[in-house]
Every structure is written in structure tokens, then in C-alpha cells.
Amino acid sequence: MGDFHTVRREINAYGADLVDKPFLVAITKVDALAEEDVRNVRQTLSEAIDVPVVALSAHTGIGMPLILDRLFEIAKPSGGRAETPTVSSRDDEQEPWSPI
Asked: What DSSP string runs through 77-97?
């Protein structure tokens, strides 16, 4: 918990209104822990910092859809809907981009 508060203090000290930007907190490599331990760590951390905590595992995909949804929500322009970028395998084909 101390590391979280240290980072937040450093962001505040840096200035440029960064401390007012939305942010996410995640614990990673949760595939290496028992489910009960993950629940306990998330709850303890969330209560200590008063911020929701997402549990992630890149290896197993745990939490990836949730964190991607939250990142897309944060990335939306104020009052609007984030545009979905498109990718093309050929010049005449456009497909919606998806991270998953």
C-alpha cells in the first residue's frame, strides 16, 4: 500500500494536473495465487486505498476483458463515445479493430 501512496505523491508533485487523470489499479500474475488469496488481496488493497482493484493474468486471460473495458471507458473523450479504430488487410476492406 505504501508503494501506491508513494506513486500518487510523486504524480501530484510532478504537476501538470496528472493527479486528476483517471487511473486503474491492478494486481497481476493472479494465476499464481489461490482464488481465496486473490479475493483477500483485492479486498484489502481496495479498502486501504479506496479504489477498485482489478485482478489480472496475462497468462490465463483472467481479468483482461474487464481491464480492457475500463481502459476504453477512460480513453473516451469527455461527453462522447470513443471512436473504434479500423484495420485493413487490404486497401478496400475495413474491419473494426478489437484488442481481443
From this structure: PTTS-PPPPEE-SSTT--EE-
